[in-house]
Amino acid sequence: MLRDLIDIDRIELSAEMFKIFFVKKYIAKTSADETFVIHNPVLLLMKSGCFKMQIKEIDRELKAHDLLLLPRNTSFSKVEAGNRLQFFLIAFSSELNGHGFIFNQSDLLSSGAGNEAAKISLDENDYRVLSLICRLLYAELSSRLSNEFEIRLKQISLNLLLFELNLINAKYLSVDGMHFSRSESLVSQFLAVLSIHCRKHHTVKFYAGVLYASPEHLSKMVKEVTGKAAKKIITEAILSEAVSLLENPNLSMAEIAEELEFSSVTSFSIFFRKAMLCTPSEYRKNAIERFKSR
User: Fold this and answer.
1) 127 and 208 share one domain
2) Which residue range is the domain that position 9 belongs to?
């Protein structure tokens, strides 16, 4: 299955910059003696479970909150999946530069970087931020948008991802020569706080207060760096949490509304329907049907 996801030769990327997958149920299909090569950079972020694989004849074991960055032309063999395995996987186009990106590719994804796979065990805060960005990307690419707007939105979202990868590289791998403006640092802190508090706090004013900034200044900096309004990113984060909660059939609508700090099920339903064009109940029903069809 891993080969099916990252075999970019079989994914049309002429008009795409990346493909993102959120794998919630994985069955390893790679035999012990099978080897395959990826031809494009790949990011794998572990949510839960355990993943064992052999990369360029080196055994690797991935656990929850591990990040694996793979340069092009990496060879795989002996893929083994543990129980409760869930992960995000992003397969990038060969060349991202020159497509309207603010940030350069992270060193580990660029052609001029080292040729080895890099495994990073993220701390809780860094995992929360990167996971939030991945969930936002996944939600955005699952929606139906006009072509021109979709391309621009992908550029903005991928800029955010590459920016966060650069921060991670600088923190964990001591990458020299990386300089971030005050606005970029503020936005990174905003995303970190948002990833922790988005279920309970829905206003720009709250996040601005935590970061000792005015709501106007925070909104301006977030818009400058990401191309999105701060309120829009907060809304997307809440929706991402809502979707995750709705996929748990043991939670009632009242419990979900309470967990997300909505005053009532009705107010939660209005918020969800406005953004997703369907009610929470309709989304849950469709999610259950998709799960059964796997």
Assistant:
1) no
2) 2-138
Residue 114 neighbours by CB under 8 Å, 6+ apart:
71, 107, 108
CA distance 279 to 283: 6
Q: Which of 69-78, 129-138, 229-238 has the highest mean pLDDT?
A: 229-238
pLDDT, tens digit (0-9, with 9 covering 90-100), for 53-82:
888 778 888 999 999 988 877 887 767 777
Instruction: Give yes or no for residue 160 having a pLDDT over 50.
Output: yes
Q: What is the pLDDT of residues 173-182, one digit of tens each?
A: 765 545 567 7
Using a cut of 0.90, tell me whether the model's pTM lies above it: no
Give yes or no for residue 266 having a pLDDT over 90.
yes
Taking alpha carbons only, the member of 101, 127, 143 closest to residue 235 is 143
Q: Is the pLDDT of residue 156 over 70?
A: no
Whether residue 9 is found in the same domain as residue 134: yes
Q: Report strand pairing: 51-55 vs 118-121.
A: unpaired
- Considering the domain boundaries, does residue 102 fall inside one? yes
Domain of residue 32, CATH code = 2.60.120.10
What does the pLDDT read at residue 179? 59
* 196 plus 280 within the same structural domain: yes
Same domain, 207 and 283: yes
- In degrees and rounded to multiples of 5, residue 201 shows phi and psi of -130, 125
* Together in a domain, 186 and 281: yes
Pair (9, 128) in one structural domain: yes
User: Is the domain of 35 the same as that of 108?
Assistant: yes
Q: What would the DSSP string read from start to end of 204-268? A: HHHHHHHTT--HHHHHHHHHHHHSS-HHHHHHHHHHHHHHHHHT-TTS-HHHHHHHTT-SSHHHH
The per-residue pLDDT for 262 is 96
Verify that 123 and 216 share a domain, yes or no.
no
Sheet holding 74-81, edge to edge: 35-38, 74-81, 51-55, 58-62
